[in-house]
Amino acid sequence: MAKIMNNANTLRKALNTGSGLSFGAWQMLPGSYLSRTIARAGFDWVCIDCEHGNIADNEMHESVHALASVNVSPIVRIPANEGWMVKRALDAGAHGIIVPLLTSVDDAKKLVQTAKFPPYGKRGFGSPFSMGSFEVQGNLSGFDYMTNANDNLLTIVQIETKEALDSVEEIARVDGIDVLFIGPWDLGNNIGHPVTGDFSPELQKAIARILKAAQDAGKKSGIYCPSGEFARRYADMGFQMISVVNDMTAVPTFMADSLSKAKGSYGHAAAQAVKGAAYGAVNLATGEK
After folding, report:
1. Which residues pair with 188 in a beta bridge?
2. Model confidence pLDDT, tens digit, residues 230-259
3. Confidence band (pLDDT; 50, 70, 90) for 94?
4. CA-based angle 220:177:113, to the nearest 5?
5. What is the tens place of the pLDDT at every residue in 11-62?
6. Pick from 42, 75, 82, 140: most CB atoms within 10 A?
7. What is the pLDDT of residues 150-199, one digit of tens each?
C-alpha cells in the first residue's frame, strides 16, 4: 500500500526520481472542471490556493479529488499554520500541504506535529475521504492510508518572512519538513526589498541562501514563479518544485492577447476595405478599370 501512495503522489515521485525536477500550476479560482483542465496540461501537481485564492473548504475537497482522478497531485496551500487547517486539507486527501508565513523553528515543529499521525505527530484519524485521492492507483483502506501517510505525504513550508530567513538553516533541519518553498513577493516585502520589476540583488541573495539551506539539509526546494520564463531560470538554478503559472494570470493574459490579435486583424481588414473603396472611387472618377 505504500507503493500505491508513492506512485499516486506524482509530486513526491517526481522529486525523488531522476532529475528531481517538477513543474506545477496554481489554482486560485474554484471548480473541479477547472482543476482537471489545468491538470491535463501536463503538470505533476496543482496547488489549490486556499490562502489568497477564492476557494472555500467544500470546493477544496472537490478539487483535490478532481486532480487525483487524472493522476496529478493535489497540493493545498492553507491560509495559516493552524492545526485545523492542516487537518481539513489532509483529510480531504491532499498529497501535500503548503504552509505560509512561518517565522521560527517552533512553527515548523508545530506543523509537523499536526501533519503526522502518531507516534511522530498528533494528527487525528477519521476522515472517510482522504484515501479516495489515491485510489486511482488501487484500492486503499482507511487503515492503509493511516499507516502509510506519514512517509508519503509532503509537508512544505514557505520561507517568506525575515524571521524565517534568519533561521532558515535550522528550519531546514526539522524532521518531517520535506520542502522549503519560496514566496518571492512576500519575502521581498518582508526583507525590505519589494519586487517592482526584476528581483533585487538582496532578494536574489536571500533566495540563494534558502536554496543552499535546503540542499545542505538534504531537503527539496521550491519557488513560486509567475511565468514559464521565470520557472526555467530557477529550474536551471537548482530548484525542484517550481510553479509555472496561475489561472488568474493565464486566463486574462490569453484572452487579452486573443482580443488584441482580433482587433489587429479587424483593423487591417478595415484599412484594406478603406483602401479598396478609395481605389474604386478613383477608378470611377477616371473611368479606369
Report:
1. none
2. 999 999 999 999 999 999 999 999 999 999
3. very high
4. 165
5. 999 999 988 999 999 999 999 999 999 999 999 999 999 999 999 999 999 9
6. 75
7. 999 999 999 999 999 999 999 999 999 999 999 999 999 999 999 998 89
List, in order, residues 6 or more apart from 34 with CB less than 8 Å away: 27, 63, 247
Could you say which of 52, 65, 193, 268 is catalytic? 52
Enter the C-alpha cell of residue 233: 531560470
Letter string b/e over residues 44-70, b meaning 16 or more CB atoms within 10 A of that residue's CB? bbbbbbbbebebeeebbbbbbbbbbbe
Residue 141, pLDDT above cutoff 50: yes
Diameter of the chain by CA atoms?
A: 97
Which CATH superfamily hosts domain 1-248? Phosphoenolpyruvate-binding domains (3.20.20.60)
Q: Is there a catalytic annotation at residue 61?
A: no
Q: Which amino acid is at 197?
A: G
State the Cα–Cα distance between residues 79 and 98, nearest whole angstrom.
9
For residue 21, give the nearest of 278, 286, 223 by alpha carbon: 223
C-alpha grid cell, residue 11 = 509530486
How many CA atoms does the CB half-sphere of 99 hold within 13 Å? 31
Could you give the CA distance from residue 252 to residue 200 in angstroms, rounded to a whole number? Answer: 27
